[in-house]
Amino acid sequence: GSQRLVDYLINRARSLIFSTSLPPSLCASAKKALEILEREEWMVPTLKSVAEEIYRRLSEMGFFVKFYGTPILPIMLYSEEKALELSKYLLERGVFLQAIRYPTVPMGEARLRLTASLKYKKEDLEYFYTLLKSLSHPPFTDPLSPKPNF
User: Fold this and answer.
1) Crossing angle for the helix pair 80-91 and 122-133, nearest 10 degrees?
2) Domain spans of the chain?
3) CA distance 98 to 48
4) Strands 110-115 and 98-100, how do they pair?
5) What is the rounded average pLDDT of the residues 8-19?
6) Which residue would you say has higher pLDDT here, 111 or 10?
7) Which pLDDT band, with edges at 50, 70 and 90, does 65 fall under?
8) How far apart are CA 99 and CA 118, in angstroms?
9) What is each CA distance from 35 to 21, 32, 77, 90, in whole angstroms?
């Protein structure tokens, strides 16, 4: 259609407007979160520090973790079976760590997705590290090998 028609439909077509807009509650929540971050300036650097510490500890244990300076820490296992196995092992011990696998990520790039949080207590993280250290074999570290061991 003409640009005028396209602009009209984008701005006036109720089915398009209501199918693509965010719910007001989500917008209000995002606004409130930004207000909190502006008021509580310590939160962002502290969260970054938590993420860096988790990355450091997991790396020291031999896990290959993709880290880009954000709170999301993908623990690469590469095998869907191993990702599901480790996720189940952790869940049975009270730790929920989602296995992310194909088709969400490319085949052969399965991982556990850990998201750092200010709500984590040191004791919670130490428990998590203890569970990982208790695995019968060293964790998978070689990103070129398709067969993780733990």
Assistant:
1) 130
2) 3-39, 43-133
3) 21
4) antiparallel
5) 72
6) 111
7) very high
8) 22
9) 22, 5, 38, 35
Is pLDDT at 139 greater than 60 in this prediction? no
Q: Tell me which long-range contacts 126-133 makes (C-beta under 8 A, separation of at least 24).
A: 127/94, 127/95, 128/90, 128/95, 129/57, 129/61, 131/89, 131/90, 131/93, 131/95, 132/58, 132/61, 132/63, 133/61
Q: CATH 3.30.300.30: does it fit domain 43-133?
A: no
Q: Which two tokens stand for residue 76?
A: 């690469």
φ/ψ of residue 117, rounded to 5: -145, 150
Q: Is the pLDDT of residue 10 over 60?
A: yes
Helices 122-133 and 43-60, packing angle to 10 deg:
20
Burial of 49 (0-12, 13-18, 19+ CB in 10 A): exposed
Residues 6+ apart with CB under 8 A from 148: 77, 78, 79, 82, 139, 140
Q: What is the predicted pLDDT for the residue at 9? A: 82
Cβ–Cβ < 8 Å for 61, 130: no
pTM of the model as a whole: 0.73
